[in-house]
Amino acid sequence: MQCSNCRSDTVAFAVPDDVSEFAPGSGSAAAICTSCLKVYAVESADEDADLTEVSEAFDVDEEAAVEMALVVGLLSSLALNRSKIETLLEHVEDRGVDPMLVLEELQADSSLQPAVAIGRRRSQLEQLMG
User: Fold this and answer.
1) Whole-prediction pTM
2) Residue 128 has what pLDDT?
3) Which of 32, 73, 115, 124 could in theory staple to 36 by disulfide, Cβ–Cβ 3.0 to 4.6 A?
4) Is 83 exposed, middle or buried (0-12, 13-18, 19+ CB in 10 A)?
C-alpha cells in the first residue's frame, strides 16, 4: 500500500487487542508510512511486517515498537490524544523501552520526512508528562 500523504510505501502491522483502541479505526491492524510516518487503518497486517523497515528507531521490543508507531500516529494532535498517548507511553516504559529515546531517534533519522515535527512534539510531551 502507498501512503496517501506522500506516496511512499507503508508497513502494515498487527495491533494487539490490548492496544487496538489506540489504533486508527480501533482495528487489529494499522500501517505506517516509511517516509512521513502517517499511520492509517488497514484491514490486515503484512505477514512479515517489520517496523525496522521504517526506521531503526523501532528496533526495540516488538510490542513496544507497535505501541510507539501508534504514538507517532497520534502526535498530530496532542490536545485531543493526550490521554491515549500517555497510556501508550506507559505501556512502552513498562516494557523497558525509553519512548523519548525512540522519538529522538526518529527525529534524527535522515531518511524520514515526518508529517509532524517530532522534535517539537517530543519536547511538548516531556513538559506535559513532567
Assistant:
1) 0.96
2) 82
3) 115
4) exposed
CB pairs under 8 A, 24+ apart, for 53-61?
53/11, 54/11, 54/112, 55/105, 55/106, 55/109, 55/111, 55/112, 56/105, 56/109, 57/102, 57/103, 57/105, 57/106, 57/109, 58/102, 60/95, 60/97, 60/102, 61/95, 61/96, 61/97
Alpha helices in the chain (DSSP H): 62-74, 78-94, 99-108, 118-129
Q: In the numeric block, which cell numbers belong to residue 90?
A: 506507559
Q: Determine the Cα–Cα distance for residues 128 and 130; give it in Å rounded to an integer.
A: 5
Backbone torsion region of residue 118, taken as left when φ is above 0, otherwise alpha when ψ lies between -120 and 50, otherwise beta: alpha
Ranges of residues in the chain whose predicted pLDDT is under 70: 130
* Among 22, 16, 83, residue whose Cα is nearest residue 45: 16
Q: DSSP letter at 26?
A: G
**C-alpha–C-alpha distance, residues 38 and 130, integer Å:** 26
- Note whether 40 and 87 are within 8 A (CB): no
